[in-house]
Every structure is written in C-alpha cells, then in structure tokens.
Amino acid sequence: MKELIYEGVVIGGGAAGMAAALELMKNGVSCAIIEREPHLGGILTQCIHNGFGLIEFNEELSGPEFAEKFEEQVTAKNIMYFLSTTVMEIQNAQDKKILYCYSSQWGILKITCDVLILAMGCRERNRGNIRIPGDRPAGVYTAGLAQRLVNIEGYIPGKDIVIIGSGDIGIIMARRMSWV
C-alpha cells in the first residue's frame, strides 16, 4: 500500500474539482485530485456545445475546450491527480481524513489529508427513476447516454428521434440530433 500525505484532497476532477484544487494551491495548500474516470473534465468532456468559459477565460469554449484549459492550469501548478482511481473508504482520525483508494496504476493508496473537498458532480437518474419500463428496452436512451454516444463515441442512435422532457440536456440533444 502506497501512503501519501497532502494538506488537501479533492475528490472529483471535473470543473468544480479542478477549480477547488487550483484555489487550494493559490492559498498555499498542497493538494491532489482523485478522479474515477481515466481523464479530468467530468461531464464537460461530452458537452460539445459552446457557452463555457465566458467568465473564467473570457472566451466562448466548448465543454472539452473548457476542461482542457482547466487541466492545463492544474498541470502548470503541479497538482497531483490520480486518474482511474476509486475512493473505497473515508475515515476520520482526530483532525485528519484518511482515504483508502484503489487505482489501476498505483494499486491501493492510503491518503491522509487535513482538508477534504467533495466535488463529485451529479449523476443522471437511472431508468427506473424516470419510469422507463424494463431492464434494457431497445432504442430507449436517457439524454445523458445519448449525449455520450453521439458526442464521444460518434454513434448516432437512430434516424427518427423522440425526446421526452424539456430539460437542458434534452433540448441540447434535440438541437444536436437535428444536425445529423
């Protein structure tokens, strides 16, 4: 087991996690980011529409471009990040937090820190929560899955599309599917 000590640890490598780590470093706090995916950026990596970065970088960026700019800052500040790493347990030990993690690259990690920030974003509700019947109905996709298939995998799930709901991602995907 590899044992590491940081003043601060951020769980989650999306925009909020990277921003938190950068803020810690700006305030002189040594820190690391733990991310379960094999890349930083979180959900931004599948948001190919523009509209990001206007406040932070004074330019209009796509989600992947926005994530890349954050990642460049994280790398420039020498913030350690552990990719493809899962936090298995968090323990309180007096005034410290102890994290036990599994990483395909590093094996088992024991990370001790003073400050722990949870920036794990959100997850799309599962099929049962949004009342899609059955275990795997053919041709029925949640908006997030459809977004990932189209924007990341380059797979068009069909020609005749019905979108149920009017949330942001549903509207974005309706516009995106009209392009194909």
Defining key terms:
alpha/beta; two-stranded antiparallel ribbon; 26% helix; 180 residues; 6-stranded mixed β-sheet; 8 strands; 4 helices; FAD/NAD(P)-binding domain
- Helix/strand-derived category reads alpha/beta
CATH superfamily of the largest domain: FAD/NAD(P)-binding domain
CATH fold name of the largest domain = FAD/NAD(P)-binding domain
What's the overall geometry? globular
Number of domains: 2
Mind describing the biggest β-sheet?
A: 6 strands, mixed
Q: What is the helix fraction of residues, given as a range? A: 25-40%
Annotation, overall tally of beta strands: 8
Distance between the termini: 49 Å
Level-2 CATH architecture of the largest domain: 3-Layer(bba) Sandwich
Written description of the protein model:
The chain is globular. The chain has a six-stranded mixed sheet with strand order 5-2-1-8-7-6. A two-stranded antiparallel ribbon has the order 3-4. It is built from four helices and eight strands, in the order E-H-E-E-E-H-E-E-E-E-H-H. It is of the alpha/beta class.
